[in-house]
Write a structure and sequence with these properties.
The chain has 18 helices and no strands. It is mostly helical and about 450 residues long. It has a single domain, classed as Hydantoin permease. The longest helix has 30 residues.
Amino acid sequence: MAQKALIEPLGIEWVPPGKRHGTPSQLFSLWFSANLGMPAWLVGVLGPILGLDLIQTIIAIVLGNIIASLLVGLTAKTGCGQGLAQLPLSRSIFGRRGNYLPAFLNTLSAIGWYTVNTAVGGEALAHLFDWPLGLGLLIVAVGQIVLGYLGYDVIHRFEHIMVYVQGLLFVLMSYEAVSHLSYLPHAHAGSYGMFLLELAAVVSYSFSWAPYASDYGRYLPENTRPRQVFWSTFWGTFTGTIWVELVGGVVGALGWGNLSPVGMVQHLMGALTDFALVAIVFGTITADAVNGYTATLSFLTLDIPLHRTYAAVVLGMLGWLLAWVANAHFLADYENFLLLLSYWVAPWIGIVLVADGFGIINKDQALRASGVNWAAVSAFIIGVLAVIPFMSTTWFEGPVAKILDNGDTGYYIGILVGSVAYRLLLRIKRRRMSSQALS
């Protein structure tokens, strides 16, 4: 068995067979822990804020998590046994330089999630010990940076422990949520447009993990079964996220959605507020250990000449600074942040799944890739542009979204158009290559 190092020595390099270790079950622990936090809670809260009743919110949460968890699981499966993280592996699709576009966007996304989590966790820690907000943010950030610095194995060990710690704390929060069900005010059903908007937020939250998916299985042995990777990732993502979002849905239905995250917790938990604040802090660190590590790997995929450990520190400190500056505007921008993520991730997923079906994704192709694969890059851009008419945010609302009563269906269109465009452009490219070979 390969020996585990305290500090991971590799960056985005290929993991040779002698360094492979672990089992697919550790993916369940990681994704379960990473989703037990306030960001997922706030996705559930959004439903009643948008005007949905609790039943509609529950349906959106269940349906959205099935869709998103399937996509994350399928994306994780594409990296099974390859020994590469997700964005370095996608060089086999986009080319080395063409891959800069999704790598850059994923770096921004991961730092964005890091910022969102740090803002909530820092506020919770500051309330717990009556500290200044800046100090709470800094302490949370330091813990996350240490995990990112140490790397893959330490993150997996930490997430495994947090399954039990976070699980116990969220059992308490769930008990309080259930005990408040009798106090739910009567609510009329919301419009189908608001249902589509909540569904988009649910899907966007979970499938934003898809560009991370292979990062946490890249050390698994070469003979690991893809099916095991898929189901471990699916169930870890689904169970952790749906649990927390359902609790959030109850909180929103109680009419507390206009409060700060900490204010919601105080209203729900009462005398047990301190336990809930601990859960928020741990939830921040479990999610941001993943966000910070992936941000580092995506950043290095841009061919930045920086060691992984140094990049982890730099990006972690950047996330802390952004959290400190943006905290006051967090709740106002949260819905738009979730939806904007879906607009680029969706066509990327469509392209990746088509490439996997054609056998294009492999570590040998990724390691020797160069230049730009214009079929993939063009399909990606086409997919993103196709989403614009379907966008529904406070910053921009597309014409189709207006017809759908402000409903957002951009992620469906992004996946569909991105995959179809890539398949067509790939077919044209292959026919052209065949013609040139014959001539």
